[in-house]
Amino acid sequence: MAALANVKQVAVIGAGDCTDAEYLAAERVGELLANNHAILCCGGLGGVMEAAAKGAHAQGGITVGIIPGISGENPYCGIVTRTGMGQARNIILVHSADAVIAIGGSYGTLSEIATALKIGKPVFGYHTWEIPGVVACDTPDDAVIRAVGAGDPSLTCHTPRDGQESQ
Fold first, then answer.
1. What is the pLDDT of residues 21-35, one digit of tens each?
2. Neighbouring C-beta atoms of residue 88, cutoff 10 Å
3. How far is CA 24 from the centre of its chain?
4. Is residue 123 in some structural domain?
5. Cβ 34 vs Cβ 4: under 8 Å
6. Which of 29, 111, 134, 149 is buried most, with the most CB atoms less than 10 Å from its CB?
């Protein structure tokens, strides 16, 4: 694994109650993040969060669950931060990431997207909220490639809000 100082932390966000298609997409994202030596951060509960952690865990990746309570994390979170802060933990999750991948989701996901955009974190979406600033991705693979490359000057990614196209 690369030196930890150079490792990307990517938050995967989405609903705790997701569709089968979203679950499979999130699991694929987790696998790919692990294969790209990224640390997967998530909300630590079920649905998209569980699927992404499951995929990364299966590939030997590092998984971090930042949970809203003091228990109830999914079994695929290798590192658990028990915040006891309810939905306020969304802020911690987004601030902990270098980039965000949103898969599906509801209002909790929307709050995480809004926070990420507000603080200048790149957000890559797969079948999620279609709002300015979220870079729509056609596949889970596309979302991971963009998230892992975010911040790398050779793989510059601009959002629609910038008025520039993504590479």
1. 999 999 999 999 999
2. 11
3. 14
4. yes
5. no
6. 29
